[in-house]
């Protein structure tokens, strides 16, 4: 057993050994009570790598004493599923843990679903992707529990590390190790909620430590060195990546500079510069908009510079853009107005284009009644430029008002002009 990685050896043997996840499997949850009482529902477990999806499945198997089979949907075929079905016919019920379940293909699904539905197979599916986006509806409908697991808190990870240090059979309890509480806390705080990484760092630190007077002495610099080599930010294009993009936009919209920079840093560490620059450019028009029309060109310049520079220099113009957007006046009135116009069209609020607005660049246009257009530039109005009181909307849509100004930043001036022109139109 000692040849197996520490993280593998220290997997919880039952649900009472699960670290964290109290809202999902704590003693006061319905799921805990069901499993303790011998009923294990099919379920989907969703969350980032290293937060305990596989461990929870093993712990449920250990508590329920059901025959346990683990498969990975990326490499399993129809024969593997048929083997699980055959096992269920012998034992009466099997607990199947299917990792990467979002990769499940239709053939596997068709083979497995009737047996999940009948209760012969209890399915625990694990995925790093949002199950409502990436798991087939047929699978979701047969899972009584869909649970999003979260990163572990440092205190939960500290308990995991201490258990590994004390257990002799599975952990490091037979080895004489000099490691302080503060050093264990440093590991727990430095792995971003990932229990697997915490145990891996602990095992690596112990393996790299020198022996002194019969004890392995753990030094701070070893912990710092190993923590610095661990990626904490997730993968491109996974659910966590899109959650980071969402958090960045919502932080900018909420004018929180520090939160926005934090999420920008996460995204740039992942490395998908194209997706980040695209989202920033969209935000400049979606969330800043008419309140500060200069932001759009500023962000375009920053994103263009970032793409030319590449990382790590790209972080400099992008940080400028994010801070400027956070502290700028904000308005979503323009795209809201456009969406309102689209909604009106889809609701059937349509009509013919007024004759005086139709194309006249051909002989015979006048014969068709395409006449009466008044050229606004011929009628100056103060410092505004040209304006003339004539109808532009179809008759059936007259009076529709899609644009609702927001009195923020530069849009205050635009709102004033908009209201004044409405007054002019009312004067016949």
What descriptive keywords fit this protein?
alpha/beta, Rossmann fold, Helicase, Ruva Protein, domain 3, five-stranded parallel beta sheet, elongated
Q: Work out the count of structural domains.
A: 4
Would you state the CATH class of the largest domain? Alpha Beta
The CATH architecture of the largest domain comes to: 3-Layer(aba) Sandwich
Low-confidence stretches: none
The average pLDDT score comes to 87
Q: Tell me the total number of β-strands.
A: 10
Assigned CATH superfamily of the largest domain = P-loop containing nucleotide triphosphate hydrolases
Strand order, main sheet: write it out: 2-3-4-1-5
Family: Belongs to the AAA ATPase family. RarA/MGS1/WRNIP1 subfamily.
Keywords: ATP-binding, Nucleotide-binding
GO molecular function: ATP binding; ATP hydrolysis activity; DNA binding; enzyme activator activity; single-stranded DNA helicase activity
GO biological process, one term: DNA-templated DNA replication
Plain-language structure description:
The structure is a single chain. The protein has helices spanning 6-9, 22-25, 30-36, 53-64, 78-91, 106-118, 131-134, 137-141, 154-166, 181-190, 195-208, 220-228, 239-253, 257-270, 273-288, 295-309, 315-327, 333-346, 411-426; strands at 43-46, 68-72, 94-99, 121-127, 145-148, 177-178, 210-212, 215-217, 380-381, 385-386. By secondary structure, the chain is an alpha/beta fold. The protein folds into 4 domains: 21-148, 3-Layer(aba) Sandwich (Rossmann fold); 154-228, Helicase, Ruva Protein, domain 3 (Orthogonal Bundle); 239-327, Zinc Finger, Delta Prime, domain 3 (Up-down Bundle); 333-426, post-AAA+ oligomerization domain-like (Orthogonal Bundle), CATH 1.10.3710. Strands 2-3-4-1-5 form a 5-stranded parallel β-sheet, sandwiched between helices. Strands 6-8-7 form a 3-stranded mixed β-sheet. Strands 9-10 form a two-stranded antiparallel sheet. Helix 5 packs parallel to helix 6 (106-118), helix 11 packs across helix 12 and helix 15 runs antiparallel to helix 16. The mean pLDDT is 87. Belongs to the AAA ATPase family. RarA/MGS1/WRNIP1 subfamily. This is Replication-associated recombination protein A. Keywords: ATP-binding, Nucleotide-binding. Residues 39-154 form the AAA+ ATPase domain. GO terms for molecular function: ATP binding; ATP hydrolysis activity; DNA binding; enzyme activator activity; single-stranded DNA helicase activity.
């Amino acid at each position: 057993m000692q040849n197996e990685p520490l993280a593998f050896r220290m997997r919880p043997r039952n649900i009472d050994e699960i670290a964290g996840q109290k809202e999902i499997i704590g003693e006061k949850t319905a799921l805990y009570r069901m499993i303790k009482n011998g009923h294990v529902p099919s379920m989907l477990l969703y969350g980032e790598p290293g937060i305990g999806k596989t461990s929870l499945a093993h712990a449920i198997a250990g508590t329920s004493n059901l025959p346990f089979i683990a498969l990975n949907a990326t490499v399993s075929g129809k024969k593997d599923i048929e083997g699980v079905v055959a096992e269920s016919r012998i034992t009466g019920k099997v607990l199947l843990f299917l990792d990467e379940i979002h990769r499940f293909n239709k053939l596997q699904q068709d083979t497995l679903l009737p047996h999940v539905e009948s209760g012969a197979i209890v399915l625990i599916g694990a995925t790093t992707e949002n199950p409502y986006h990436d798991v087939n509806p047929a699978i979701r409908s047969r899972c009584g529990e869909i649970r999003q697991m979260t990163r572990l808190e440092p205190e939960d990870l500290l308990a995991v590390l201490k258990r590994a240090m004390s257990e002799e059979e599975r952990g490091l309890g037979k080895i004489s190790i000099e490691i302080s509480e503060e050093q264990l806390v440093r590991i727990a705080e430095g792995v971003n909620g990932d229990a697997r990484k915490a145990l891996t760092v602990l095992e690596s630190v112990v393996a790299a430590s020198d022996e002194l007077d019969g004890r392995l002495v753990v030094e701070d610099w070893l912990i710092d060195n190993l923590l610095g080599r661990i990626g904490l930010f997730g993968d491109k294009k996974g659910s966590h990546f899109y959650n980071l993009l969402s958090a960045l936009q919502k932080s900018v919209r909420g004018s929180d500079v520090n939160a926005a920079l934090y999420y920008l840093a996460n995204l740039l560490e992942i490395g998908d510069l194209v997706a980040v620059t695209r989202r920033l450019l969209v935000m400049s028009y979606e969330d800043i908009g008419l309140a500060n029309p200069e932001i759009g060109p500023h962000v375009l310049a920053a994103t263009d510079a970032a793409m030319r520079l590449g990382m790590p220099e790209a972080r400099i113009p992008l940080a400028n853009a994010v801070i400027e957007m956070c502290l700028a006046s904000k308005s979503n009135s323009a795209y809201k107005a456009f969406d309102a116009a689209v909604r009106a069209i889809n609701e059937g609020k349509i009509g013919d284009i007024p004759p005086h607005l139709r194309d006249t660049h051909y002989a015979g246009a006048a014969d068709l009644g395409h006449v009466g257009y008044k050229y606004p530039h011929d009628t100056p109005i103060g410092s505004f430029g040209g304006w003339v009181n004539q109808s532009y909307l179809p008759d059936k849509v007259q009076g529709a008002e899609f644009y609702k100004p927001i009195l923020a930043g530069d849009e205050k001036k635009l709102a004033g002009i908009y209201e004044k022109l409405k007054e002019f139109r009312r004067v016949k």
